[in-house]
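Subject: Short-chain dehydrogenase/reductase SDR structure
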Amino acid sequence: MDSIHKLINILLPPITILLLLFFLPPYLVFKTLSYIIRSVCSENVAGKVVLITGASSGIGEHLAYQYARRGARLGLVARREDRLCAVADKCGQLGSPDVIAIPADVSKQEDCKRFVGKGVNYFGQ
């Protein structure tokens, strides 16, 4: 058993270093190129329907603004109706052709079915 541990302690570090030297540079080149391609060729969401939950604040609010700038049709869902309506108005000003604000709580199954159904009925898809 000790001889196996000694052998592993002798062989494993050089093998690990060689594998890192062999695989790490191509991986980093691939990741860099894919990042550049993604940043140059962003997806066209103009006219597509995007349903965003938690849209009254935080990440959901900023996602709504980004999609509005790109011309997406937005279905915004959150519990706070007053704040949600303010976000929907701003999205309309930023360039979204069609915005619907749906007050709902995603922790309730009935609300989830209701806002998905309302979005499909409103946008037709």
